[in-house]
Design a protein that fits this description.
This protein has 461 residues and is of the alpha/beta class. The protein has three domains: 2-142 and 268-329, FAD/NAD(P)-binding domain (3-Layer(bba) Sandwich), CATH 3.50.50; 150-265, FAD/NAD(P)-binding domain (3-Layer(bba) Sandwich), CATH 3.50.50.60; 343-460, Enolase-like, domain 1. It is built from 13 helices and 22 strands.
Length: 461
């Protein structure tokens, strides 16, 4: 069989590319050999994790009833019931995506693929498919780092955490990134004792030090034991079925035992079985497929999108990459990928969100800037909500006031950041945003305070 456009992987990036190519009139095939259709986000990532995290947040709010003048005698987690709700939620999304893939717009092959050359793939059922252009969108898999003994002990992953119907008494989390932090807080809120062992000196190292500090203090206040700036030495089985983790911290050798060792040390591209060399595709040291700004790999006929290509493993980025790749592959005009307006959210409590350029990015580019922040503990709506942790900050070009970037750490930061995301996309200035009405009392109103400071500084300059 020969196609105009062939997609390997039916997740967010792959489906977006296939849909785009079909809309341009191309003959399209999708190859997906996973046991379930839907992709990581729907089945094992965004949707199940945020469903459970929201349940844990509701439980946490109930536990704070006395703060709000409420009498709530008892509130506790029922993991089995939470799992039933989670499965109901994700089933709807998975069935919808499966329907989209099976609605006849594409030829769907339920198999895995490997390259014969840059125009040809062989499937696990021995079928051979040819295409003018091919997109790799095979996603990622959990990273298992080279720590002595780690391969010899029972290691749990985010998949296991998201499927828990019974709560382990104690959990040790390896890692301090987004997944580690989101699920560690979920676990402690539903009743587990949680220890985090993180190699970096702080949690969420991709975000600002100020953001890390807020989350770290929140975790400590909720009872999470934190070991930051560690060196993992060894992992070993114990005779009672537990696992012992040896690590260095603050010049001391420490050990912690756990019945549930949760590996949250990141993910790596899932491309090992593709035989990329046969198609002339080169990879980065990280394992990601090397692409240009149109998602074209080192083999001009082959594109890549989503987690397997990076550089940001975020669903909306994967979708845009898939759309960009398909449009470019079919010879249509399309803007190259640009991450200056990148939006990212961490669903801890408080949430962490940023959009656009960070201060380090702005400084590296030599852009004169004005920057201002404002804390949630001095803001009316957040005070009455007992949501006083965190801050908002705005960075603007000092020459004209154009918004370059922003950070929000606090209650519903993932919702609040979108006001500034729109502003950056429209190249709005601080002065432009202050022309809008910001209702009082709302959480969104908090943006007006740093905006006023930035606008005044840019006006003076």
């Amino acid at each position: 069989m020969r196609y105009d456009f062939l997609v390997i992987g039916g997740g967010s990036a792959g489906y977006a590319a296939a849909r785009t190519a079909h809309d341009y009139g191309a003959k399209v095939a999708v190859v997906d050999g996973s046991s379930e259709l839907g992709g990581l986000c729907i089945l094992k990532g965004c949707m199940p994790s945020k469903t459970l995290i929201y349940s844990a947040e509701a439980l946490h709010m109930a536990s704070m009833g006395s703060v709000f003048g409420l009498e709530i005698p008892e509130a506790k987690a029922n993991l089995a019931a939470m799992q039933i709700r989670k499965k109901e939620v994700i089933r709807e999304f998975a069935e919808y995506r499966q329907g989209q893939l099976e609605d006849g717009r594409f030829d769907l092959y339920r198999a895995t693929a490997s390259f014969v050359n840059s125009h040809t793939v062989k499937l696990s059922d021995d079928s051979v498919l040819e295409a003018e252009k091919i997109l790799v969108a095979t996603g990622s898999t959990i990273n298992l780092p080279k720590v002595p003994g780690l391969l010899d002990v029972p290691v749990r992953t985010s998949d296991d955490v998201l499927d828990l119907a019974e709560l382990p008494e104690q959990v040790l989390v390896l890692g301090g990134g987004v997944v580690a932090c989101e699920l560690a807080q979920y676990l402690v809120r539903v009743g587990a004792r949680v220890t985090i062992v993180q190699r970096s000196p702080r949690l969420l190292k991709e975000f600002s030090p100020e953001a890390s500090q807020v989350v770290e203090q929140a975790f400590k206040d909720e009872g999470v034991e934190l070991f930051l700036g560690t060196e993992l030495h060894q992992v070993e089985n114990l005779s009672n079925g537990s696992v012992r983790v040896h690590f260095g911290h603050a010049g001391k050798r420490i050990q912690r035992d756990t019945e549930f060792l949760f590996n949250a040390l990141g993910r790596i591209p899932s491309a090992a079985s593709l035989d990329l060399v046969a198609a002339g595709i080169k990879t980065l040291p990280s394992g990601h497929l090397r692409t240009n700004s149109y998602q074209q790999t080192t083999s001009p006929n082959v594109y890549a999108a989503g987690d397997c290509s990076g550089p940001h493993e975020i669903v909306h980025v994967a979708i845009r990459q898939g759309e960009t790749a398909a449009t470019h592959a079919l010879g249509r005009e399309v803007a190259p990928m640009n991450y200056d307006g990148l939006l990212s959210v961490v669903f801890t409590d408080p949430q962490v969100a940023y959009v656009g350029l960070s201060l380090s990015d702005i400084e590296a580019r030599g852009i004169p800037f004005a920057s201002a922040s404002f804390p949630f503990d001095d803001h009316g709506k957040s005070i009455l909500m007992e949501a006083k942790r965190g801050h908002v900050s705005i960075h603007a070009n000092k020459r004209d006031g154009q918004i370059l970037g922003a950070e929000c750490v606090g209650k519903d930061a993932g919702e609040l950041i979108h006001s500034i995301s729109v502003a950056i996309a429209l190249k709005a200035t601080a002065q432009d945003l202050l022309k809008a009405d910001w209702y009082h009392p709302t959480l969104s109103e908090i943006w007006t305070y740093p905006l006023e400071d930035v606008a005044e500084e840019c006006l003076v300059s």
